[in-house]
């Protein structure tokens, strides 16, 4: 309001006009300049920090979403303790790989979109509805993605209707697909996916699932230079979040450092990690 | 062209105020009280879906008496204001004081513009602080004035009587159950002083609970939790609070 010099202090008419429950719709009608998708980009290629690997795993009773902490700009490490996993609302979380600045902005908008709907309607969106909303937002970013500023999230949440944790992955065009069991995106995702493929089973416990994602992130960091492994010296550990019927929970530093420590210690004697049976 | 009758500004405003007050008085009153862990909103509301109380932002709640479509409009305006402000600046920059100010400006402009019908609403905007001292409660009557309230506040048709009842009995550091009981007691008194029973399923109760671990402190209290609180209360009151019920009322 204060940002608007024409403001008289009274709520502008747009605020009091009945309309959609979407914050994005309101923003694009009232202050389109605040939307990332309405921004004009100059010609040329822009080099901005990129977030790298994120992984998700379902387990019996919920879903785990985790990310490494490194952001890179070309071959430089731009940030060592970046946060890439965020609560979207009480029962879902979103993690991002891609252009860091845009991705964080998109997450902020997405959180607000869900919260706004909830407050206006007095009811929460279905998990499917939330996943579709995110899809629309990525589609709106396609112009920037074409210029190299892509954002590719993973979305995970507890589906109250179905009584299970679910994972949705996206491509830059907003294409959405539900993943069974486990998923990864970002530059280290090929290695993380390989790792999870061998370790995953549908009857994991919560503790096994959180260990699994740390193993997968370790493997991604092992083979992808843009992904950061656990940094024992600086005490920077993967961000691990768990969503169950109880809602969203981020592992405390003590919990994630313990996970990282046990995985790293085993790797000292077995650098390639746990072995799967040949048959 | 015929000359319109002259109406003095005083008379015009008095008429508008009376019109708004009558509209508000048709609805049921509601109360907002501070308790030790936050702020509780209590009202009689037969509807499960059309709420009188709602969340505006992390620590800010909204309560309204009067005409539903008008306060719903203001509520959504407030949610849009808060979300836009939080998005533009930071979540901490959304305050009840700021929100109360835009509501006051909005209501005031509508009230004094001759072309518009005054809104038949009375609002409460409350923000829960980290400590009880940080709690803020603002009452916004139909004409756009702001009243900074402490402890307890009632709005709606019967508000004056309920307020004086609450003023005598509300104290700092009440538990949620005590505050809820007091609120229900206040709401059950009719204008002629007789009491009637409000069943739990006709109550709408919500809190801004500062002890909630989430960033968003607003929570509705429904079903079993509500009846448990109401009952816990009756048991405790039978022993301790009985004498205070004897306080004669003005």
TrEMBL record, chain A:
Q: Which InterPro entries did the record assign?
A: Ntn_hydrolases_N, Pept_T1A_subB, Proteasome_sua/b, Proteasome_suB-type, PSB_actinobac
Q: Name one Pfam family in it.
A: Proteasome
Name the GO cellular-component terms.
cytoplasm; proteasome core complex, beta-subunit complex
Q: Encoded by which gene? A: prcB
Transmembrane annotation, as ranges = none
Record's subcellular location? Cytoplasm
Q: Where is the signal peptide?
A: none
- Where is the catalytic site? 52 (nucleophile)
Q: Subunit comment for this entry? A: The 20S proteasome core is composed of 14 alpha and 14 beta subunits that assemble into four stacked heptameric rings, resulting in a barrel-shaped structure. The two inner rings, each composed of seven catalytic beta subunits, are sandwiched by two outer rings, each composed of seven alpha subunits. The catalytic chamber with the active sites is on the inside of the barrel. Has a gated structure, the ends of the cylinder being occluded by the N-termini of the alpha-subunits. Is capped by the proteasome-associated ATPase, ARC.
Name of the protein this chain belongs to? Proteasome subunit beta
Among SUPFAM superfamilies, the record links this protein to:
N-terminal nucleophile aminohydrolases (Ntn hydrolases)
Activity regulation (record text): The formation of the proteasomal ATPase ARC-20S proteasome complex, likely via the docking of the C-termini of ARC into the intersubunit pockets in the alpha-rings, may trigger opening of the gate for substrate entry. Interconversion between the open-gate and close-gate conformations leads to a dynamic regulation of the 20S proteasome proteolysis activity.
**Molecular function terms from GO:** threonine-type endopeptidase activity
Top-level EC class? hydrolase
* Catalytic activity entry: Cleavage of peptide bonds with very broad specificity
What does the record give as its pathway?
Protein degradation; proteasomal Pup-dependent pathway
Superkingdom of source: Bacteria
TrEMBL record, chain B:
This protein's source sits in the domain of life called Bacteria
* GO term, biological process aspect, one: proteasomal protein catabolic process
UniProt cross-references to InterPro entries, sorted A to Z: Ntn_hydrolases_N, Proteasome_alpha, Proteasome_alpha-type, Proteasome_asu_bac, Proteasome_sua/b
User: SUPFAM superfamilies this protein is in?
Assistant: N-terminal nucleophile aminohydrolases (Ntn hydrolases)
Q: Which UniProt keywords apply?
A: Cytoplasm, Proteasome
Quote the record's activity regulation.
The formation of the proteasomal ATPase ARC-20S proteasome complex, likely via the docking of the C-termini of ARC into the intersubunit pockets in the alpha-rings, may trigger opening of the gate for substrate entry. Interconversion between the open-gate and close-gate conformations leads to a dynamic regulation of the 20S proteasome proteolysis activity.
| Localization, UniProt | Cytoplasm
Query: What's one GO-annotated cellular component?
Result: cytoplasm
- Presence of the UniProt keyword Protease in the record: no
Q: Pathway it belongs to?
A: Protein degradation; proteasomal Pup-dependent pathway
Q: Name one Pfam family in it.
A: Proteasome
Q: Name one GO molecular function term.
A: threonine-type endopeptidase activity
**Its function?**
Component of the proteasome core, a large protease complex with broad specificity involved in protein degradation.
Describe the protein's quaternary organization and the partners it interacts with.
The 20S proteasome core is composed of 14 alpha and 14 beta subunits that assemble into four stacked heptameric rings, resulting in a barrel-shaped structure. The two inner rings, each composed of seven catalytic beta subunits, are sandwiched by two outer rings, each composed of seven alpha subunits. The catalytic chamber with the active sites is on the inside of the barrel. Has a gated structure, the ends of the cylinder being occluded by the N-termini of the alpha-subunits. Is capped by the proteasome-associated ATPase, ARC.
The family annotation for this protein states: Belongs to the peptidase T1A family.
What protein name applies here?
Proteasome subunit alpha
Gene of this entry: prcA
């Amino acid at each position: 309001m204060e940002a608007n010099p024409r403001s008289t202090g009274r709520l502008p008419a747009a605020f009091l006009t009945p309309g959609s429950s979407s914050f994005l719709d309101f923003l694009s009608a009232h202050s389109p300049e605040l939307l990332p998708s309405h921004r004009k980009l100059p010609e040329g290629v822009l080099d901005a920090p990129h977030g790298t690997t994120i992984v998700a795993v379902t387990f019996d009773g919920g879903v785990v979403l985790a990310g490494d902490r490194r952001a890179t700009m070309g071959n430089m490490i731009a940030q060592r303790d970046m946060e890439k996993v965020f609560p979207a609302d009480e029962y879902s979380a979103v993690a991002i790989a891609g252009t860091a600045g845009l991705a964080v902005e998109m997450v902020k908008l997405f959180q607000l979109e869900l919260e706004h709907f909830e407050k206006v309607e007095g009811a929460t969106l279905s998990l499917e509805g939330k996943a579709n909303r995110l899809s629309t937002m990525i589609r709106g970013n396609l112009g920037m993605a074409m210029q190299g500023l892509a954002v590719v999230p993973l979305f995970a949440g507890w589906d109250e209707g179905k009584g299970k944790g679910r994972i949705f992955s996206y491509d830059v065009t907003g294409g959405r697909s539900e993943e069974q069991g486990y998923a990864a995106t970002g530059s280290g995702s090929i290695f993380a996916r390989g790792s999870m493929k061998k370790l995953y089973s549908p009857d994991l416990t919560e503790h096994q699932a959180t260990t699994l994602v740390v193993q997968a992130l370790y493997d991604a960091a092992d083979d992808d230079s843009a992904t950061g492994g656990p940094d024992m010296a600086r005490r920077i550990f993967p961000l691990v979040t768990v969503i169950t019927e109880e809602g969203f929970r981020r592992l405390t530093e003590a919990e994630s450092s313990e996970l990282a420590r046990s995985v790293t210690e085993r790797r000292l004697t077995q650098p390639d990690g746990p072995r799967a049976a040949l048959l | 062209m015929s000359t319109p009758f002259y109406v003095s500004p005083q008379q015009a405003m008095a008429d508008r105020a009376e019109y708004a007050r009558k509209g508000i008085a048709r609805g049921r009153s509601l109360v907002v009280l501070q308790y030790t862990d936050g702020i509780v909103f209590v009202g009689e509301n037969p509807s499960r879906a059309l709420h009188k109380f709602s969340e505006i932002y992390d620590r800010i709640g909204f309560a309204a008496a009067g005409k539903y479509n008008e306060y719903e409009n203001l509520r959504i305006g407030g949610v849009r204001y808060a979300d836009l402000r939080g998005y533009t600046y930071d979540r901490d920059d959304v305050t009840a004081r700021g929100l109360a100010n835009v509501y006051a400006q909005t209501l005031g402009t509508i009230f004094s513009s001759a072309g518009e019908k005054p809104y038949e609403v009375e609002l409460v905007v409350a923000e829960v602080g980290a400590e009880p001292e940080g709690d803020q409660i603002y009452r916004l009557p139909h004409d756009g004035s702001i009243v900074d309230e402490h402890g307890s506040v009632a709005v709606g048709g019967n508000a004056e009587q309920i307020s004086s009842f609450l003023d005598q009995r509300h104290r700092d550091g009440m538990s949620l159950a005590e505050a809820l009981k007091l609120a229900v007691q206040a709401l059950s008194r009719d204008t002629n002083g007789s009491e009637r029973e409000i069943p739990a399923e006709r109550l709408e109760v919500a809190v801004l609970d500062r002890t909630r671990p989430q960033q968003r402190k607003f929570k509705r209290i429904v079903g079993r939790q509500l009846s448990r609180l109401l009952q816990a209360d009756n048991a405790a009151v039978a022993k301790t609070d009985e004498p205070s019920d004897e306080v004669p009322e003005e």
